[in-house]
Structures are given as C-alpha cells and as structure tokens.
Amino acid sequence: MQIFKFGGASVKDAAAFRNVRFIVQNYSVPGELLIVVSAIGKTTNALETIFSKAHGNLIYEEDLLKLKDYHFSVASELFSQNENRVFQHLELLFANLQEQLQNLVPDKFDQQYDQIISFGELLASTLLHHYLKTENLPAVWLDCRKYIQTDSTWREGKVDWTWTEKLIQRDLPEMLSNGNIIVTQGFIGGTSNGQTTTLGREGSDYSAAIFAYCLRAEKMTIWKDVAGLLNADPKIFPNTVRYPQISYQETIEMAYYGASVIHPKTIKPLADRQIPLFVKSFLDPESEGTRIGICPHEKLAPAFILKQNQCLISFGVKDFSFISEQNLSTIFHVLSELRIKINLMQNSAISFSICTDYDPTRLEKLIETLRDQFQIQYNISLQLFTIKNYDSESIRNLTAGKEILLEQRTRNTYQFACRA
Ligand code: ASP
Ligand code: MG
Hints:
By secondary structure, this protein is α/β, with parallel strands linked by helices. The chain contains 13 helices and 16 strands. Helix content is 39%, strand content 23%. The model has no long low-confidence stretch (mean pLDDT 96). The structure holds aspartic acid and magnesium ion. Magnesium ion binds next to loops. This is Aspartokinase. One of its GO terms (molecular function) is ATP binding.
C-alpha cells in the first residue's frame, strides 16, 4: 500500500479538490491507499491569527467568519445544496471551534493553541472525505488523533511510536483490506487522555511518514506545487535544478537547514524502514519528480537554503575569563528548557554566539535567565543562508554585497548570517 500527502496548496479551492480526485483515481488503487491532508490554503495561518486574537481578548469574529465563508464556498462548488451532510458537518465543526474560542483561559497558551489550530485539518479531511465519496470513491474518514499518540509537549507532540504502531496495526490493515481509501489529517495527534496535539508547523509530511512507517508502506508520495525536490526554493532563488533522485541523508540535511520542501522529521521513519519517498507535482503528475531513498550519488549540485527572521545572540563572559565548558553547559541547559533551537553556533575566546529563529517571548525569557551571568547582545531581522555541497563560485555569488555577521564552513556546508 502507499501513502499520499496533499498539502494546503493542493486543496486550496474546488478545482484543486477535483485535481486531487483525478490523482487518486489515476495513480492509486482502492484498498491500497491512505491519504493525509493538510488544512486548505492558508487556513492554519488564519487560525493562528484568530487564536491569538481570541486569546488576547480582541475581536476575532470577522476573521472566523471569513474562514467559514472560505470553507463553505469551496464546499458549495463541490457539492450540490441537497448534500446536507457535508454542510451540516462543516457547521458542526465551526460551532465547536467557536465554542472553544469563547472558553479560552488566560494561561495554557500552547495547549489551547493545539485544540484550536487542529480544526484546519479536521475541516480539510471532512471536505475531502465527502468529496471523494460523492465521486464514488470508497473513502473512509479516520480521526488520526486516536492513532498518532503523543505526549503533551504542546505544539510539538513527541510521538509514542510503540503505541501508535500498535493502534494503527490493530485497525488500519483491516480497513484497507475492505477496499477502502483512508482519508486522515496531517499535523495533529492525540494524547492518551484525549487531548489534541500538533506536531509542529508544516508537520503533515511527518504525519504521512508516521503512517507509512507503521503500515510498512511500499512508498509515500508528497504532492506539491513544485516539480520535485529542487536545489533551492524557486520563489527565492533563480535557476533552480531538480534532483531526479537523492539519498535520505542529503534530504535530511537539507530539511534541517531549512529547505521548506519537506518537514525535517519526515525522513527518519521512512529511512528506518527503507520506504522510498516521492516528491511530485500535483500540477503535472506525469512528470518524474524526485525519488528519495537509498541511492549512492556523485557530488550533487549546490543546494541553497534561506532561513528568514533570524536572531543572532552572543553570550559574553563578564570578567575576561574564557568561555568554559561550564558556561556552555549553563547556556545549553537554558536553551533546551526554553525550547530554543540553534540553527548555527560559534565559539570564540570570550563569547559564544548562536543564530536562532526569532521569538520575542522566548528571547526575553532567555535574557532574563542568563543576564546575571553573561553579557548578552543580539541582532534581529537577519537571514541565515546555507549552501550545501558548495563550491567557490556559489559562495562568491551568494555573498556578494551582503553584510555578513557570522560565517562558518565545514567540508560540505557553508553558512552565514547577514542583514536582511
Ligand atoms: N496545516 C499545517 C501548517 O500549515 C500543517 C501542514 O501544512 O503540514 O502548518
Ligand atoms: Mg501547510
């Protein structure tokens, strides 16, 4: 069996849903397919706005109405008005969402975030399920929160693999053997006491890989609006090239550095069970795309990756002693407690610097905690560029005219932080 993952762009409107149906009909067989779908279009961003407004006691009703209209307008293009069930189903989900928004409590931000933001995927999977059924495909809807079991690390649930595999193995092979196409949600999971968790933004790829792993799928395909895995994001860099095939290792590293094409956690479960991952264009399903798997290859074309909105933080010792392992251990401990992820780090005689995604709340806590021990300086609004498999020309071209604040080079990778 195989796993298809459809992201937000592939279900952004009614035409996109029709295209998904076309792909399902032509590139899979009922009984051998599980579909993971993300929230439609930019729904997750909209839900984040609604949630933060609601949480801050600001007026969110208009945004919520807009989101509801969006879903109903897609639905009314896909379904005739007498298909009451789907409209009722959407009404129910929106009523439930509204109720939860009205009952937010001041703290527990991250926990409540997960309960609210997960509606995007519930709505999308409901739409897709009903739509495939009206098109006479044997779709069944699966609540993945009952299968993907996580701890309660809100917004980044850690998967309990043993439980998850057990639950999936208990039910899904039988559902498939009855000739069904399973439609389920990306991005979300559930705790043992029935709370919803999310797996981290853009986490639907990871969800698909979890199902692939637990079902020992033959292959998994991520359907995207690009021709495959490219050496750079074509929206940012000119003259991109597609890798026809690439190893798990290379892909993991690219994802780690911030290549937005695949969620970083996706590759490990697939590599563990040697399940090949195909990245294909939903706009041109006949084209070859990229195969990610076990494959030896020569040196690859340089890959260019950009992370925006970076913050460079330097911790200096206060008394002209050197930065010691003890100092580093203190800093790392606090970073880990605050869940601040290091994208790049460098040590010098009297200071230690890190580049991280900019998060004002976490930064403030970090400074508060370490202010007594270190002289802390930071810059924000930076960009972090990575060139994997660099050559001198690629470095020359990319750094030209940029004000570099920090740079680093290993055998295969060149990185620098600069002003945006
Ligand atoms: N809808 C979620 C997000 O936008 C998950 C995903 O798209 O993978 O982050
Ligand atoms: Mg998305």
